[in-house]
Records
---
Amino acid sequence: MYGEDGIAGESIEDVSIDLLKAGDKDLENECLFPHKGASEAQDRKLSEAVDDEVFQSLDLDTVQLRAIQAEFRGIQSDRESLRNDIMRTTCDDQIHLPINASRLITNAKSQFKIKPNSKSNLKPEYVTSALSQLLNSLNVIPGAKSKNN
């Protein structure tokens, strides 16, 4: 172990952060959850991504729509923080991390047998709620208590 940060130097990887260089349109296309009824094209895209039960339940009420929009604004804010604060001194989109998030996602998809282009049975309100709970439980600084402790 090097220093007191708990990170082993021999396990550090260069990881590309796609969010850093994403333009506004790219970000919308990748991260903004389309709401049902906005257009025929969006409804078709949604019906291809979620199962019928979820699609039928997507008549988003105001609370659900606000939660989805807040999540997207959070992603936009994270991108701006990356650009203006965290990575402002470099033109590179690479960062040295002890984990490779893309590999974690790929391995989870494999472990849970999630096929490409398969329909999801997850409702947006469940995803935003579970993500919020996960982020609140993360312990970034060793020895510090999470928000839930």
---
Amino acid sequence: MYRMSSMPPFFLLLGVLIAGCEPVVDAPDRTYATEEVCDQLAPEQSVELGTGSSVFVPLEAGDLVMQAWGPQGGDHVWGALRINGVFGGGDWRDDPDCMEGEGSICGPIAPEDAPTATINLWHDDTLVASTGDALSFQADQGLAVGIPAILRMPYSSAAMEWADPSEISQESIDEAQAADAAELQFEVTVRDACGAELTDERMVRIAIGWLDAVGVTD
């Protein structure tokens, strides 16, 4: 089924490596996505969607995907990948405009041929959380962790937790309660410079934290 939705603004988070737009100077000995390289990778291609900010946590049907808070006050759920046969691209490099220090959230800049992941969390045809645009990532020994799918209204506790309960619409309450009680479809699409497109999905649950915080009960 074809689904389209508008993506909300989202922010960079620690642990996430997002592609920059500056040109990359490649090392002479780096590997490129040539036909030979891509043909060697093709038989091994696979992706498994899990969760986790710093380690890969596999997901079984019905597992809880935890809400997490970002350094800019928003909230999200973590996606993580176990991959094989995906072209990794060139070297990542330091961001020359990054201002280091407390609260810094910038990270390395991805090469143009880095693999990307798009992660969505669905309740039926309603988008609960999403990476928005495809995010570049790098894997360490076949694992990529800390990929945030940003929670949308009315599922985001960052947006709802401090609200006056009398000002929250019944529609928002009903939608949040329905997602809190249901199994949701957690899905990923990974693409690489060889033209590979790999997908995986898991049925998971999520606790909508603001429902308890504002005293909403069934």
---
Amino acid sequence: MGKTARLRIPTWLPAVVASATLFLPVPLRATEFPRFSRMSLSAQAEYVALMIDATENALRAANQSDLADRVHELFTRIEPGASMPLGLVQYGRNEALARLADLERYEKDPNARRLHVEAALFVTLDKNGVPLSTEVKTAVVDGMARSHTTTYAEFKAKTTDEQRKLIALLVRLAYPHFRIRDAITRRIEGKEPSTYDNLDMRKREATLIAAQFPIGAAIQPGFAGLAREIDAEYRKTPNDAGPFYCIVLHMFDMVAADLAKEMKRMEDSTLQLPQRSPPRTPPGQGKAAPAPAPTPKTASPPPKKDSPGFGDAIGEGGFITPPTR
């Protein structure tokens, strides 16, 4: 099965994912992996972020705020030393394993029901102590059936609070998911490595996101600048699906600016050593004494006939050859 076969599927995953899929209501509305895989990486990343948000909202609507809080914590908290929320890391792995399980099922039985992206999220939540009722799963699937990549015009039609919430969601979830998927795809296709392969770079981006788009804060320092960039693109092509594209470019610019500031700080803090001036003759001593004449070198004696020199020991091609007597 090519490179994807290197992943080892846990023994429990196919049964659990299949079970989650078979009990999904209105299965034709759910997004099967073949259709999901035809989306661009950026569209997939936005879909995943909206799906996680839809699950949290469905739990709150079902008066299960305790479970909704667990979902929020799982996909927002970044442990010390990490660069991504644990939930996003686990979901990414389960999504990859579910894709492989779906391919294996299809190879064995082309008529088998294809697995759905939603099932990968439901399995991730279940393994973290967040079981979902059929009603909640129905709400998530129905909500995602109406979901699509946000256009500039749709973003502009939202209130400022709605725009702020959407940007924070895409920056916090869609952006790191896109970056890690892009890095993996580059490695598989043998392309130039992504900067996201570097752990320090991932941590830098996570730090910038936390500072510019703090979770749950009414004031988002990075919102105004990003909203202006989206507005500029809206005036050019209002019906294009592009707000997330603007977010990716904005993050790249933020990282570049942060690196430039760090380089400037390093240059400013570098100790500048004073240049030495030429030695001065003490007053009253006149000219400096002339330097002593160099001692003549003694020529090395020629090598003896039975003791070949280095040149005699090097044969053609630079290989050392035994001397001849």
---
Amino acid sequence: MRLRRIIERGLLWTRMAVGAGFLVAAWVGSDGLAVGAGEIVGWGYDIHGQSSPPSGTDFIAIAAGQYHSLGLQMDGSIVGWGEDFYGQSSPPAGTDFVAVSGGGWHSLGLKSDGSIVGWGRDDYGQASPPAGTDFVAIASGWSHSLGLKSDGSIAGWGYDSSGQASPPVGTDFIAIAAGYNHGLALRSDGSLVGWGQDSFGQASPPAGTDFVAIAAGMYHSLGLKNDESIVAWGRDNYGQASPPAGTDFVAIAAGYYHGLGLKGDGRIVAWGRDDYAQVTDTPAGSNFVAIEGGGGHSMALSVPPVPQLVNYQGRLNDSSGDPLAGVAVDLTFRLYDDAFAGNLLLTDHQTGVQVTEGIFDVLMGSGTLTPGTESTLGTLFQNHRGVWVSTEVESDGEMTPRQLIVSVGYATRAGSAADLTQVVPRSTAPASPAKGDVYMDDTTNKLMVYDGTTWQACW
């Protein structure tokens, strides 16, 4: 994949079984713009303006700290608002950020080269991340921070009074979350692990291998299961650890004493402490794609509905675990409305997909489509917000398990087969392109991808 920036809408970052690596999905609209770009809505405690986001429809990710908030824009820059006593809402300049995270009084940004930048309060080193260009996700606690590396290991730094900055050893982690003084991680087998302060059981997650997402609050934690239900544990004095029943949630977020759930139809549900209307002022609507909880405020990202194409990339290894290189393979993607059984919604067969250094990239929806219950990706995602995808390489059979495409509270980057330096800026499209070719339009400053028929503006 030649794209380095991954858009926060229906983001999937996981490990597929049987020889595949990290997979990422991002939505692309019919007008060629990333549908992940939208406007931010805020509500709840606003004494510092933390729930009054700036106007604009070009935001692709959001983050909430105690009294401040952050937004990542399509051009890779970060905007901050709210309390700024320690400079936590004054992000550094730059257009190469792909993820943001807000802590107590500090903030983190993940760059496209895999490095982390921190700013704000740094009395415990929480805003001084380790060097390295192999990070794929970030999380900020009250005074500690976490970073997930591309090898599946976790790094921690900052305040470590309860071991919250000392994550467990391992290389099978695929997601992280940081609470007040505790941490959570999701393993590739769907199980959870917690560490740090555990006075209310917030760092003691339930057993099971069916989790797909996690979130950490002050003294409580949340887990999203593969059946789209939410499980909570830890302190429950305000009902923050008592999520609503249902099996139609696709994303979760934890504020300090409240919780948020995003439903498959794009609606938001909130519960827990409501002293600043961070629960009762939850906006109506069904176009929300990301949620975030802060100290006493909440935020959501609202985008136009109905994606038409999915920019999908993954990694293929041979039987020895080495990445495939310089080969072309046929890939079949099957989209379902259930994790195990359910209805086959649509099949997309892509032929001659190039694999470079183990990485492949396709525009799902641009191949040969075989209707199931739906005939296009547009109608599919309009009618089914909860969608699982399986991949078949050549005729080797479907890889398992199917992967739920979910929105999460952070963006990430994927390993790339080629650096962006190989994308040549030009004012006209290359002649005789092949599907998957890209170029940077230096007139519009957009990254163009050829889907086999037309050029699509993806960035």
